[in-house]
Design goal:
It is a single chain. By secondary structure, the protein is α+β, with helices and mostly antiparallel strands. It contains four helices and eight strands; from the N terminus they run ββααββββββαα. It has helices at 29-37, 39-45, 130-138, 141-157; strands at 9-12, 18-25, 52-58, 65-72, 75-86, 90-97, 104-115, 118-126. The chain has an eight-stranded antiparallel beta sheet. The protein is globular and about 40 Å long.
Length: 161
């Protein structure tokens, strides 16, 4: 089965330190929740192409913590956070890039069932300031988002999820 590359819509709120991401998937909300909470699946798709992801800690439950390290060419980047809420159609968590430990975002992901096996992901990241938000956007995050979600599409199409 061939997958079609779909880019995520990434928008910055002009008045608030918020980034919003919207993306449609040919998957059910349950499949997307599993892809975001199962550590083995998550490591297969998260981030830009060419990065290897190693899960260090993963406790996908309300109040559980997570940490992973992504590496390429001898460089490693750590990320960590806490799961605040995991439900049938929503995940709320914190997210910290360990290279910028003072910049913590509060992320919420809502999985809208569009019917016919399709789901729209609505993600929102609230950061500490407009400057921090703009730094995230300037970091090239859209490459990791688009390439990661393309890998997720391929996993779904292959029947892995």
């Amino acid at each position: 089965m061939t997958t079609q590359h779909v880019e995520a819509a990434i928008e910055a709120d002009p008045n608030l330190p918020i980034i919003r991401i919207t993306r449609d998937f040919t998957a059910t909300p349950a499949q997307l929740i599993k892809a975001h909470t199962d550590p083995e699946l998550f490591a297969k798709w998260v981030g830009p192409d060419g990065m290897d992801t190693r899960i260090v800690a993963w406790d996908a439950r309300d109040g559980g913590e997570w940490r992973y390290v992504a590496g390429r060419d001898g460089e490693e980047y750590g990320f960590r956070g806490c799961f605040h809420t995991i439900s049938d159609d929503r995940i709320v968590q914190t997210f910290t890039f360990e290279g910028m430990p003072d910049d913590v975002s509060l992320e919420s992901m809502r999985f809208e069932d569009l019917g016919d096996g399709r789901t729209r992901l609505h993600a929102q990241s609230l950061v500490d300031s407009i400057e921090a938000r703009d730094a995230w956007l300037a970091s090239g995050m859209e490459v990791g988002v688009d390439q990661g979600y393309a890998k997720l599409d391929a996993l779904i199409a292959s029947g892995t999820i």
